[in-house]
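Below sits the subject:
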Amino acid sequence: MATPQESARGTSGNNCNFFNILFRRQSTPPPPQTKTNSNSISSLAKLLLPTPRRLKLDPSNKLFFPYEPGKQVKSAIRIKNTSKSYVAFKFQTTSPKSCFMRPPGAILSPGESIIATVFKFVENPENNEKPQKPALKFKIMSLKVKGPMDYIPELFDEQIDKVTVEQILQVVFLDPERPSSALEKLKRQLDEADAAMEARKKPSEDAGPRIIGEGLVIDEWKERRERYLAKQQGEVAGDSL
């Protein structure tokens, strides 16, 4: 039979073993997270966080067209780069055969804006029925680029994983005979787009050589010199008479 002293020593030993095991468990560092877990968390965060927008659109989610059956009509949308980087944008449509955009894409510097024009042919309704809500949609995509460069559509194919869908635009028809704020705004934007197009066509006095048509280069300095010499010859001929 164990004496009280032996029982006390046995109880004390058991307590020490218990605390040693507990201490070792608490002091053991947790296993490091694997790379797979880290990548999974990163992917999940990207899905949950909202996609950052690079462009501001006006109108924001619609394209307004005057409803004129049997005619080609126009819409307009202002596209502004609100980011701190150069951004390429590109149009896509569910009906590329009946619609085209001008420009279909471009590269915008930080803060730069452009008014794009969209052309569409409006089919005649069957049996003079009222126009149904069109299924036609447009999509505007954006892509961050390194700096100023020539726009080519292949940019989006080469970096498809970095492309952002900015907005899906619904088509809305307006009655051209019924005044509305949307119709007036559309007319102003179309006038502004036409003025900008004419300004781009007009040569600058100090712009230097410009490319026209199928790669034809016109040296404006040479052209000015020829006009000047012709004018001088005309004045000399007049004085001799």
Residues 209-221 have pLDDT under 50 and may be disordered. The two ends are 152 Å apart (CA to CA). Helices lie at 4-27, 35-48, 154-158, 181-201, 220-240. The CA atoms of residues 211 and 217 lie 5 Å apart.
